[in-house]
Write a structure and sequence with these properties.
Family (chain B): Belongs to the binding-protein-dependent transport system permease family.
Distance between the termini of chain B: 13 Å
Keywords (chain B): Cell membrane, Membrane, Transmembrane, Transmembrane helix, Transport
Helix content of chain B: 55-70%
CATH architecture of chain B: Orthogonal Bundle
Subcellular location (chain B): Cell membrane
Number of helices of chain B: 12
Shape of chain B: elongated
Chains: A mainly alpha, B mainly alpha, C alpha+beta
Largest sheet of chain C: 12 strands, mixed
Radius of gyration of chain B: 23 Å
Structural class of chain B: mainly alpha
Strand order of the largest sheet of chain B: 1-2
Oligomer: heterotrimer
Largest sheet of chain B: 2 strands, antiparallel
Distance between the termini of chain C: 63 Å
Helix content of chain C: 25-40%
Number of helices of chain C: 17
Number of domains of chain B: 1
Radius of gyration of chain C: 26 Å
Shape of chain C: globular
Strand content of chain C: 15-25%
Structural class of chain C: alpha+beta
CATH superfamily of one domain in chain C: Dipeptide-binding Protein, Domain 3
CATH class of chain B: Mainly Alpha
Strand content of chain B: under 5%
Main location (chain B): membrane
CATH topology of one domain in chain C: Dipeptide-binding Protein, domain 3
GO cellular component, one term (chain B): plasma membrane
CATH architecture of one domain in chain C: Roll
Chain lengths: 325, 316, 535
């Protein structure tokens, strides 16, 4: 287990470095951030002074070397735009994104499992088939379009919910969260639904397929034969067994949720790291873009590991050495 | 997670008016049987019909739309943001209204469909070819090459497509060709993994051994014998991936890193038009959005049905 | 199992709460009457007033800090922390400072604070756009007494008071040594520790990307500010920003998209305030290279070196139609680089009339009867409707035979390509930070000259010695009337030579909920001080 962990983390570190270098060079090639950042009133001398101040006058290989040396020491550079360490900027914004992704995950899981279970128990009923066709629609609605439509309907036409931004936050163990205020939750609802829809469709399909398999298993038949109430059979025996694939896939999808938050956060002006990424790309704020990607990849690695661990807890037959592939 | 196939068991064939291939009375060939099973699902048939209509419209766009939306000489800003049904001086009627440049929205949508479908299908085609080749090679040769290639595939798949494409396009700049390249890069690994998976199974079967024993060349064994037997799951993935690619392209264009404004895809039309949405000029954004969703739903309906028929074990 | 049920139950719980929130939102929109929430299109990158010379940053610091001199809504100079100023000779200025002013932390304000501020300007670490452009003419400073400041410049500098109005005065007593090093750090301003000024509002909270909260400074020297609490929320997407106003989330937004203005104006719950800005949108043409990159079909000649072609381009464009249809009427067709009425604008110039026939005739005379092919470069996220305006220009040029394609790119890419002279013609904009004509003339049309700081943005490389001479002379003239006349003459020379083609002046708009009024500013700053309760 330990060997497995070390090998996996080693590979991940290599990926992290290669990616950081490629992105570093790529953004260097796009353009000079000073062109965007500097006041147009600045004359040529001032432009060159600024380039020097930000260390952009040095050759690429030197900038890259400096970056790598500092990165090893945990310093991912300072944002060109904000002048503060890029990592700190990201960590400040991370709670907002995680909050959004987690709520979306909870929505996707609860709604998806419920509907999927239903569709799986009654596959030929009209409702079961409608749920399945509906899940195709869920797959198909592009994230940004759904967000725009939700804003139009719920914020502008009905004026029930705010159109964007994050609501009131409270400090919980040093992390700012908007999960515990009404205002915060009302701001969270639309973006969370937008982000959750695709995953909900995914969970519906997983849960339905799992249910259809499980209800044919002997232990379910025995449980029924034993005279257990249908609801107990469903909630205890069926649900537990369909959760294994659902948790695995959804856990892995948490990473892609954080990535897709880029789109959702842009639409809803949600102050998370996704929006920071878009702004930083626009401003060629290279330290922030590179730090964002390293951070995100790091989170993926953690999630993958966590899913493997959770998987082995849910299903004792699985041993971690097998999941190494 | 194998499902009993409702298509096979029910066997009830409902003849749809839109059905394009009438099923033969006897299930003579596997293909005909597939077509028959496919038609058992009404949504899937409807989806296929929509795809065919849209594809024909996109291919023959210059012949069927009243205006070439890319030809600036045909536009007039004095005709800008006219509502649907407004008369035009140049030709009949702007059935779906105009955008701010005086561009006929109907024409723009058909041309936008063209770009969207072009990007979707071409990127999938390239990704399919590259990914299958990698997967076949990995499965056939095995060993170190296999684990190296699969390592790369794993790494590629561990990055979310949207992020990779976003960064790539930020670096490449706007352009239809660049969007296609970015989409190929984020998609090929799916096919590589799928082909390797089924090729590993097929490889162990006798007919491959027989082919090798007969002294056929590696290339012939790979592409003549192994590949055709790995096709069914590929067809399913490819169909669904076209929908994915179209949606992804729209998203990228919405974020401003996709196709250039001179050749707007559906996604870019939506993004441009959304600014006008709240001012009541809904048509600039709404109709392209509807077109986009209809196309993606249609492709997904077909893909979903194909998945049930060809590869019930496949997850997505 | 229990875990799973708990997860599902948790989901239901959150949904339930959300529904509760849903019915509770009516409360959200109706904040206390003296609280103000403003939705910003772009947020400040830092609260350090000397870190980044950028419109959102400058607009933000005006709340917390004061300048020595302030600019009113029309960018005319008004007393700030200096009550009066005058030149003693060509290179010496005297400033009388306001007495009895204290910073938010109670430290008193005097001349040492001004000197400290000006000395800090070149010492801001990592500044992506420094304020040194306003201080580099200063040779020496001296506090004659705590409330009299003498500043000497290297050469005659008529713009010194204007330049000083861009600098926020910080407290020497508070800042010196506060960050450990020699000079205060940007982070300590962002965290609020050093965001201590003399301005009308005090720092309360700054969460980047989310909010900036300020509270009233009851001891403000300029009278009691209107609002108890001001909250700025960055909402960069246009649609959601408007939606936030319509749903009552915010009280004021800046830059409502032009296409929404008709609807907002028609809405009786919304007020729209618009004002002419100091920003001109212009076309610049490569007038330097012989083989210009973006032109085809001219046998290798650069058509824009011929004044007749430049004139033809100008005549081919229907500026009024662009203003009407693309800008939704919220812009003013431009005849020069700064609107008439601002310092140095020539009142005699008129907007070029739309004359496609005349344009074709001029093109034929210049030897291009069949026109040529042209690529028009434009950013697509920098100016109001930039890319749409470029498309409309392309439409007009194509009609007179210049077959134009638009090459639009995001601002980072656009500026790089423009600065490496990749465009034969490009669309861009210029806002005059000083509010007078020498700013656009010096930057856009003066012959590039690093020593003099001329032509920093003259990427068409237009060069006219007569224009340069007039600008030189104006920048040495302390007498306002004499300087204004010279600037007017320079403007006249450039426009009649078609050295640059102004298209329109941007009009900046703000939308407020009913019951509020906004006084538009030509510098496009969004400010709580401009918001009043409507009568």
């Amino acid at each position: 287990m330990l060997v497995y962990l070390i090998r996996r983390l080693g590979q991940s570190a290599l990926v992290l470095v290669v990616m950081a270098v490629l992105v570093f060079i790529g953004i260097y090639a796009i353009g000079n951030p000073v062109d965007v950042l500097i006041s147009p009133e600045a004359d040529l001398a001032e432009q060159q002074a600024t380039i020097a101040r930000l260390g952009l006058d040095r050759p690429l290989w030197e900038q890259l070397w400096l970056f790598l040396v500092n990165a090893v020491q945990g310093d991912l550079g300072r944002s060109f735009v904000h002048g503060v360490p890029a990592l700190r900027l990201i960590l400040e914004r991370l709670p907002a994104t995680l909050e959004l992704a987690l709520v979306a995950l909870v929505v996707a899981l609860s709604v998806g499992v419920f509907l999927g279970l239903w569709a799986g128990l009654k596959p030929d009923a009209l409702l079961g088939r409608s749920i399945m066709t509906g899940s195709i629609l869920g797959f198909s609605l592009p994230n940004f379009w759904l967000g725009l439509m939700l804003i139009l309907v719920f914020a502008v036409l009905l004026q029930w919910l705010p159109a964007g931004g994050r609501g009131e936050t409270v400090d919980l163990l040093g992390i700012r969260t908007s999960l515990f205020t009404l205002d915060g939750l009302s701001h969270l609802l639309l973006p969370a639904i937008t982000l959750a829809l695709y995953k909900t469709s995914l969970v519906i399909r997983l849960a339905r397929a799992g249910t259809r398999e499980v209800v044919l298993q002997d232990y379910v038949k025995f449980a029924r034969a034993k005279g257990l109430s249908p609801s107990r059979v469903i909630y205890v025996h069926v649900l537990k067994n369909i959760m294994i694939p659902v948790v695995t896939v959804v856990g892995l999808e948490l990473g892609s949720m954080i990535a897709f938050a880029v789109v959702t956060e842009t639409v809803f002006a949600w102050p998370g790291i996704g929006k920071l990424l878009i702004d930083s790309i626009v401003n060629l704020d290279r330290p922030v873009v590179v730090a964002y990607l390293m951070m995100t990849v790091f989170i993926f690695i953690l999630i993958n590991l966590a899913v493997d661990l959770l998987y082995s807890l849910l299903d004792p037959r699985v041993r971690l050495s097998e999941a190494g592939a | 997670m194998s499902e009993p196939d409702p298509g096979l068991s029910s066997g009830a064939v409902v003849a749809e008016p839109e059905t394009l291939h009438a099923p033969p009375p006897r299930l003579s060939s596997p293909l005909a049987r597939l077509a028959l099973d496919f038609c058992a699902s009404r949504p899937a048939v409807a989806g296929l019909a929509v795809i065919l209509v849209v594809a024909v419209a996109a291919i023959f766009a210059p012949l069927i739309v009243p205006q070439n939306p890319y030809d600036l000489a045909q536009l007039d800003i004095m005709d800008g943001t006219l509502p649907p049904g407004s008369p035009s001086y140049a030709f009949g009627t702007y059935w779906l209204g105009t955008d701010v440049q005086g561009r006929d929205m109907l024409s723009a949508i058909v041309y936008g469909l063209r770009i969207s479908l072009l990007v979707g299908s071409v990127s999938v085609a390239f990704a399919l070819v590259i990914g299958s080749a990698v997967g076949l090679v990995a499965a056939f040769f095995g060993g170190g090459l296999d684990s190296l290639l699969m390592r790369i595939v794993d790494i590629q798949l561990s990055f979310p497509a949207i992020l990779v494409a976003l960064i790539l396009l930020a670096i490449f700049g706007n352009g239809v060709d660049k969007v296609i390249i970015a989409l190929v890069i984020v998609q090929w690994a799916y096919y590589a993994r799928a082909v390797r998976g089924s090729a590993l199974v097929e490889r162990r079967k006798e007919y491959i051994d027989a082919a090798v024993c007969l002294g056929l060349g590696t290339r012939r064994v790979l592409f003549g014998h192994l590949l055709p037997n790995c096709l069914p799951p590929l067809i399913v993935i490819a169909t669904v991936q076209v929908a994915h690619a179209v949606a992804l392209e729209a998203t990228l264009s919405f974020l401003g890193v996709g196709v250039p404004i001179t050749e707007p895809s559906l996604g870019l039309l939506i993004a441009n038009g959304f600014e006008y949405m709240m001012s009541g000029r809904y048509w600039i954004s709404f109709f392209p959005g509807v077109a986009l969703v209809v196309v993606i739903v249609a492709i997904n309906l077909v893909g979903d049905r194909l998945r049930d028929l060809l590869n019930p074990r496949l997850q997505r | 199992m229990n875990r799973i049920l708990a997860a599902c139950a948790g989901g239901a719980f959150v949904l339930g709460l959300a529904q509760a929130a849903l019915s509770g939102t009516a409360l959200v929109g109706t904040a206390l009457a003296d609280d103000l929430t403003i939705g910003l299109a772009s947020e400040p990158s830092a609260l350090d007033p000397h870190y980044h010379n950028l419109t959102p940053n400058n607009a933000a610091w005006q709340h917390i800090f004061d300048g020595l001199i302030s600019q009113d809504a029309k960018q005319r100079l008004q007393p700030g922390l200096a009550v009066a100023w005058k030149p003693l000779d060509a290179t010496t200025w005297e400033f009388d400072l306001r007495k009895g002013v204290t910073f938010h932390d109670g430290t008193p304000f005097d001349a040492e604070d001004v000197i400290y501020t000006i000395r800090r300007i070149p010492n801001v670490a990592n500044s992506p756009s420094s304020f040194t452009i306003y201080t580099k003419s200063i040779a020496s400073m001296e506090a004659k007494d705590p409330y009299t400041l003498i500043i000497k410049t290297e050469a005659p500098r008529p713009l010194l008071p204007t330049e000083l109005s861009n600098l926020a005065i910080i407290s020497k007593e508070t800042c010196e040594g506060a960050s450990g090093g020699d000079w205060p750090k940007t982070e300590d301003f962002n965290s609020g520790t050093l965001a201590v000024g003399t301005g009308p509002y005090k720092f309360a909270e700054f969460v980047k990307g989310d909010r900036l909260v300020l509270t009233r400074n009851d001891d403000y020297w300029g009278g009691k500010p209107t609002w108890d609490k001001v909250t700025f929320k960055p909402i960069s997407s246009d649609g959601p920003r408007v939606a936030a106003l319509l749903s009552g989330d915010v009280d004021v937004i800046d830059n409502p998209p032009t296409q929404d203005l008709p609807r907002l104006k028609a809405d009786k719950n919304i007020n729209v305030y618009s004002g002419l800005s100091n920003r001109v949108i212009y076309l610049h043409m490569d007038q330097f290279a012989d083989d210009t990159p973006g032109v085809q079909g001219t046998n290798g000649r650069n058509p824009f070196k011929d004044k007749r072609v430049r004139e033809a381009v100008s005549k081919a464009i229907d500026r009024k139609a662009i203003v009407e249809k693309i800008m939704g009427g919220v812009a003013v067709a431009a005849e020069q680089l700064l609107p008439k009425g601002m310092f140095g604008a020539d009142p005699a110039l008129e907007v070029e009339a739309y004359d496609p026939a005349g344009a074709r005739k001029l093109l034929a005379e210049a030897g291009y009867p069949d026109g040529f092919k042209l690529v028009l470069g434009t950013p697509n996220d920098r100016y109001i409707n930039d890319e749409k305006v470029a498309q409309a220009v392309a439409q007009f040029l194509t009609r007179v035979g210049i077959q134009t394609t638009v090459d639009a790119s995001t601002k980072s890419v656009f500026f790089k390509r423009r600065n490496s002279y990749e465009f034969s013609m490009y669309l861009a904009g210029w806002g005059s930070g000083t509010g007078e004509m020498s700013s656009p003339l010096r930057a856009l049309v003066a012959t590039p000259d690093k020593e003099k700081g001329y032509g920093g943005t003259n990427r068409g490389r237009y060069s006219n010695p007569a224009v340069d001479a007039k600008i030189d002379e104006a920048l040495q003239t302390l007498d306002d009337a004499g300087r204004e006349k010279l600037l007017q003459e320079a403007s006249d020379l450039v426009i009649k030579d078609y050295g640059i083609l102004p298209l329109h002046y941007e009009v900046t708009s703000w939308a407020t909920r009913k019951g509020l009024a906004y006084e538009p500013r030509t510098d496009q700053y969004t400010s709580a001080m401009s918001v009043t309760q409507a009568q």
